[in-house]
Amino acid sequence: MRDLSMHITDIVQNSVRAQAKLVQLTIEEKEDWLIFTFEDDGTGMDEETVKKVTDPFFTSRTTRKVGLGLPLFKQNAEMTGGSLVIFSELGKGTEVKVVMGLNHIDRPPMGDLPSTVAMIITGNPDVDMVFKYIKSDSEFSLDSREVKEALDGMDIRMPQVTSFLKEMIDENLKEIKVNL
Amino acid sequence: MTKVKSLADLRKMKEEMANKVQLREKGDHPDQLVQVKVSMATCGIASGAKEVMNHLIDQLDQQAIEAVVTQTGCMGYCYAEPTIEVTLPNSSPVVFGYVDTKKASEIISRYIIRGELVDGIIPVNYETVNEKKKD
């Protein structure tokens, strides 16, 4: 994975596949750390599965024999002195918390975060998403339920909506001085 | 200071579009829309599916093509990522493999607009590892 936005797309896709109805992604810059929290209300995992999910040769899929999303993200986090931890409960949902060294030389770049978030929101119309970017003195948040309300029946999957959201997220993140 | 876009601007955009064209409502004849699904699992993302999806959205928006683009999980064709599935109105879905931005443009201009078949289609009789095992 070349950048952190790719990891975000990947981990959110896990929630979508776990039949989540709501995914909350929070990115926080706290002192010298960059913290990602993914919370979903999907099917969740039992204790045994949670232990195995960061093993690259474990997957719940039947179409292939490897599962690299979480192991790659964990490896990247650990390379910056951080960690990846998973809390999950069957039937309740899953939380993945990733901590990375914000200014560590091995931290991958953020990548195109605005288009990543916009494409997750419009590309998974049946899943709601709350996106938050928190800095020490400011924050930006976007709730896809409010987007759907603003669209008042218009199909959220239309390319015009994605293009608009990309610009809106980009401008708002720049406004709170996120280093994109 | 320049004004930053908000959801109020999204409402305005929606109203402007509603004045120009008869706006397609959610669930309103979905079979009459071109539907594009981009495979977005680890294999697809690592192969460039995000760039392809971005490119498709930009091009469909610029060319004002009535289409919707969504994400989907691994379709089992990891060897041919990025893969996309295109469903034209009243047609069966067609899966294209090894799609880069150039291929995506070709799929729009030739398959979506003109209905011509282009190279790179993954045949429907392809079997995943698991399906083979069952035989």
CATH superfamily of chain A: Histidine kinase-like ATPase, C-terminal domain
**What's the number of helices of chain A?**
6
* Strand order, largest beta sheet of chain B: 2-1-3-4
Report on the biggest sheet of chain B.
4 strands, mixed
The main sheet of chain A comes to: 6 strands, mixed
- Work out the strand percent of chain A: 25-35%
Query: From the coordinates shown, what is the CATH architecture of chain A?
Result: 2-Layer Sandwich
> Mean pLDDT of chain B, as a whole number?
85
Pfam family, one (chain A): HATPase_c
GO molecular function (chain A): ATP binding
Organism (chain A): Carboxylicivirga linearis
Domain Histidine kinase (chain A): 1-104
Would you summarize the structure shown here?
The complex is a heterodimer of chains A (180) and B (135). With 180 residues, chain A is an alpha+beta fold. Chain A has 6 helices and 6 strands.
Characterise the protein shown here:
The complex is a heterodimer of chains A (180) and B (135). Chain A has 180 residues and is α+β, with helices and mostly antiparallel strands. Chain A has one domain (4-175): Histidine kinase-like ATPase, C-terminal domain (Heat Shock Protein 90), CATH 3.30.565. Chain A has 6 helices and 6 strands. Chain A has helices spanning 4-17, 47-52, 69-79, 113-123, 144-151, 159-175, and strands spanning 22-30, 33-40, 83-89, 93-101, 128-134, 139-143. In chain A, strands 3-4-2-1-5-6 form a 6-stranded mixed β-sheet. In chain A, β1 (22-30) and β2 (33-40) form a beta hairpin. The two termini of chain A are 17 Å apart. With 135 residues, chain B is of the alpha+beta class. Chain B has a single domain (26-134), classed as Glutaredoxin, CATH 3.40.30.10. Helices cover 39% and strands 14% of the residues of chain B. Chain B has helices at 7-20, 42-47, 49-62, 101-112, 129-134, and strands spanning 34-39, 67-72, 84-87, 94-96. Chain B has a 4-stranded mixed β-sheet with strand order 2-1-3-4, covered by helices on one side. Chain B is globular. The mean pLDDT of chain B is 85. At the A-B interface, α1, α4, α5 and α6 of A face α1, α2, α3 and β2 of B.
